[in-house]
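Supplementary Methods, section 5.1.

A reviewer requested that the exact input to the structure prediction be made available. We therefore reproduce it here, unchanged from the version used in the analyses.
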Amino acid sequence: MKQTKGLEGDKKSIIKFEFNPKDGIDNPALSLAEDTDGEDMGEPRFYLLNKGSAETFGFCLHEELGCQGHIIRQVELGGLAQRRGLQDGDRLLQVNGQFVDHMDHRRVVQKIKASGNQVLLAVLDSKSYEAAKALGKDLSQMLPADIRPRLCHIMQDKSGFGFSVSCPEGTKGIFQLSVQQDGPADRAGVLPGSWLLELNGNSVRSYSHTQLTRKLKQSGSKVTLLVASSAVEEFYRLRGLRVIAALADTSWLPFKVRELHMVKGPAGYGFLLKEDDCSSGAIGQFLWDVDAGLPAEQAGMREGDRLLAVNGESIEGLDHQQTVLRIRARDDQVTLLVIDPASDEFYQSIGLSPLLFLEDSDPASGSRTPSLPSPSGSPGLCHVEVGLKGPGSWLVAAANSIGFTQGPCQEEQKRLHQAF
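The structure derived from this sequence is encoded token-by-token as follows.
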């Protein structure tokens, strides 16, 4: 067994889905339900949907009057969702390992949208869902607890990173961590005995022990690890699923989205919104010229913050003028979700949207980061509320979900700014 002390191009995985004439295409789902008091109740099913950038997930998510839960509808014939086994009427229970049945519908839509091209869903068939609700069952108890890996950012101190790596002789990609008590890794949330899955956003499955050692040394004074306990690793392995960073619990990360609520004063809010390039090359909306003593500064706005959402709606895909109109939609107050440059750079470096982790709590303070409803326009996903006039009166918040292509063309354009 090799061991490294004092350390101190991700390959695509091929997931096999098998056809079961009774249950449909699954990956496959194992028995998870507890005693059902004699009811013929089904069990939660897990599906990993992995689409191309030009594809959609191929289903809509509905909220319907007179029905409970987040309902899978309009499963596209031959689409990704149908091929994997999602069925019309299924109720969505988890998104990327997070229980969502109790959440506001728009927040659930946003979670799927923020997940990008890959999302893990847990669903229950409609009959079993309704039976469980009628019996007053806690649906979260039908699902395995704590199935999320951890994303941990470690800052080196005089003793190193505070962990060591061991692996079986002659193998690649199988690395287990020993963690120094009260060391940097321990403080960053790494559990003793965790399995290392990713290093700085890259899979370690093809790494030899020597290659991993070299990569760690090249990381300098900070390193980001995706780790999983033995129980979490086994959960995904038994289902033929790859553990990815989008599934992670990020509560231990120091990088957070901030919520700013402002009430306009006589001199306005006191900041400038400016369109500029992000480090990723995309176009973003940034906050500058924060005036001392005015509402923006008092709410905690900082120079250079990037704007992510306005009044609970993501601005992804909006241009400058559309964002300005969002801010002005309410005459005397506004709520913004923002991220500072260091946190923004971190999430861009690992290829994940910070909006993906809005529900994660801070273990040190017990606080929770703000929740975010869904915007209008989500590729391969729609939010539908059935109105008081019945199923024929749908309010569609993301129309044309099956064929929707996200965002305007990012051509070279004049940079804009607007004072508030």
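The mean pLDDT is 78. These observations are discussed further in the main text.
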